[in-house]
């Protein structure tokens, strides 16, 4: 394993000077983990606020505007309220699994974050099986949802959890295959290399038709992976009340809630990295300033997040059997055809490169 | 081929739906229909006919127009109005006359049907447009409509 | 053990869930006892009575003027039409001829009520199938109607504008202008409803072929209103038993023959267009005259039995009064549309998924206080 920490080189040298090598690297990893945790707790809260604001603007409302400047502190206030709330447990709940479930969800969500190259330098964990690792990690989250639904001993939660299992297992395929289509062009699973390949044009441009199809499939399947509308059957409020997190309160509920938004960030960030050139600026306009890569990365991610919010606030929810029909009858065959098409295009060197 | 045309039409229909919400998103600034209620108290005016609560207007001499005929009490479907009255000697004419002691109005029981105001022959009670009726104790909702020491306008016969 | 033995030895059973009385999809305190097998509905048993207020019994102690305001609280989304039903019954019993002005104003407000009710239904319908934004668009248009009501009648929901013999007071001077403004506004917004939701592929997949009710069943279960008309059962009281000013206007009875949830949805959307056309025909021709026929202060109906039905936004509301000649009815019975429409829920929802049940229930357009009374 290689840990890229160019940005922390100075801290690294200073730590080596005062500590033995093993201790120094452990301290370093902890520091990085803490920075990431703090950053993404805030990012999650910001996304919740953004969601509420965007929803309000779609729905002719004003959105939160009381706490802080234009409501900027609203979600912080909400989080404080959730922290101070009592953690309720139902009597017949399986206590151990009930308490474990939220951590599954939040930890996997945070783990996936370590892989993204925010700029050329800023990447915590540049692993050579990057995309594979991401797909693997993101499917662990569903275990948390299944456990939550099962252990809380609530019939509505149970139905929600079962739906979640069905949904995630199905849509995992499409996410994986659509990313696979793109990997055909890069020839590498490592995220930093995937971005480097895109110096000659973003992959969605390089791969033209099959890449656009792959992107559409990825966005649909990705929305389903995060259990967001129109695929929010897991917590379909008009059917199941609150779904799998019916019995959770306080901070444990907040973990599920936050994980949903971080997952949304992850899905959009993967799309940014794979389809839209990650931290690369359009036409290389700010190539001389590597730190601006962070800006481009976040900007592209936010645009994709906005797209997901747009889906959520426009479309009705699918029914469970239609959800499966969409995956197995439409997305999967299309995806396989697309994979073959992409292979042909790569083989015949029909990709567009600048 | 209908498989692909289905997909094409499906995506088309989804995009038309998104265009509607997208249009509202772009006009979010002026399109918002929210009223920021406690902030707009100064400008918030209810319509003239709005039924907020029943009041009994008094003139500058602290005189009301209620003769104590109890028609409102009879008209009320819920018993929200109770009138306590007595036959007293009218100081002006020297005759015995039905005068109200208290016109009690239970706002908590009122369904704002307006039958009492329709029934009143002397227009002694009318609607007020106040709508902020929440209180911490429901005994506050029981009100005496005639002010202390008030008298009926002289010369009013029922 | 091979796979088949494992499957055969698996113990699986149906299970019961309580949908309601506190559930987002039941729109009130309706409790549904569901027997489900996985996602599939095996049985739906509605359990009523959570908001029963014995309105019919209270009516036996009230004068006829007082009864009117109680009917606001039954089907609160068509409050005006409920009031009108009681007033019409009393007027028929008294053989009282109400002025034309009253009839026309009643009809205009009744149709506005219908539009208000249907816009709210449309918003909630969208929300039930998961499109949350529709709720706000529906409410935006409904608010405008409520403002018109508030200006003229004095209340937004429980207006109690009708009294036996006419109206409580004349229309507000702004009424005509505001109604015209609303019609102009709503004509631009109603097509938007279609582009946002009706045409949506997910919505159509959710709605088509779900909760199919045949015409025979619709008649057998006593379905009325858009539920009956979605199954091809011509049951519009406004057409078949003309009351108020419906003889002065031309309008179509919207009929669909599919009988599924999408047909019921389309009937309601079409009805909004029809209601707008009715209002347009009447709004410029409100006759001059008195807004109230003179009645006795204490109304006593001659002894006998009286029945009058009207078309509310949900269907046929019947008012049955037995009078013994006193100032109170001896017995008063409301035939509420929601009750009959709910009775067929078990018939059409069984075999569907939980999501189908929610969509079906949304197109039945239940108002629980109307069912329980």
TrEMBL record, chain A:
It is a multi-pass membrane protein. Its EC number is 7.1.1.-. InterPro entries: NADH_UbQ_OxRdtase_su1/FPO (IPR001694), NADH_UbQ_OxRdtase_su1_CS (IPR018086). The lineage of its organism: Bacteria, Pseudomonadati, Bacteroidota, Flavobacteriia, Flavobacteriales. GO terms for molecular function: oxidoreductase activity. NDH-1 shuttles electrons from NADH, via FMN and iron-sulfur (Fe-S) centers, to quinones in the respiratory chain. The immediate electron acceptor for the enzyme in this species is believed to be ubiquinone. Couples the redox reaction to proton translocation (for every two electrons transferred, four hydrogen ions are translocated across the cytoplasmic membrane), and thus conserves the redox energy in a proton gradient. This subunit may bind ubiquinone. It comes from the Bacteria. This is NADH-quinone oxidoreductase subunit H. The chain crosses the membrane at residues 29-50, 96-117, 129-150, 171-189, 201-221, 253-277, 289-311, 332-352. Belongs to the complex I subunit 1 family. HAMAP family: NDH1_NuoH. It is an enzyme of class 7 (translocase). NDH-1 is composed of 14 different subunits. Subunits NuoA, H, J, K, L, M, N constitute the membrane sector of the complex.
TrEMBL record, chain B:
Keywords: 4Fe-4S, Cell membrane, Iron, Iron-sulfur, Membrane, Metal-binding, NAD, Quinone, Repeat, Translocase, Ubiquinone. InterPro entries: 4Fe4S_Fe-S-bd, 4Fe4S_Fe_S_CS, NADH_quinone_OxRdtase_chainI. It comes from the Bacteria. This is 4Fe-4S binding protein. Pfam families: Fer4_7. Residues 57-86, 101-130 form the 4Fe-4S ferredoxin-type domain. The lineage of its organism: Bacteria, Pseudomonadati, Bacteroidota, Flavobacteriia, Flavobacteriales.
TrEMBL record, chain C:
NDH-1 is composed of 14 different subunits. Subunits NuoB, C, D, E, F, and G constitute the peripheral sector of the complex. The lineage of its organism: Bacteria, Pseudomonadati, Bacteroidota, Flavobacteriia, Flavobacteriales. Its main location: membrane. GO terms for molecular function: oxidoreductase activity. This is NADH-quinone oxidoreductase subunit D. It catalyses: a quinone + NADH + 5 H(+)(in) = a quinol + NAD(+) + 4 H(+)(out). It comes from Flavobacterium taihuense. Its EC number is 7.1.1.-. Belongs to the complex I 49 kDa subunit family. It is a peripheral membrane protein. NDH-1 shuttles electrons from NADH, via FMN and iron-sulfur (Fe-S) centers, to quinones in the respiratory chain. The immediate electron acceptor for the enzyme in this species is believed to be a menaquinone. Couples the redox reaction to proton translocation (for every two electrons transferred, four hydrogen ions are translocated across the cytoplasmic membrane), and thus conserves the redox energy in a proton gradient. Keywords: Cell membrane, Membrane, NAD, Oxidoreductase, Quinone, Translocase, Transport. It is an enzyme of class 7 (translocase). The keyword Membrane applies. InterPro entries: NADH_Q_OxRdtase_suD, NDH1_su_D/H. Residues 128-373 form the NADH-quinone oxidoreductase subunit D domain. HAMAP family: NDH1_NuoD. It is found in: Cell membrane.
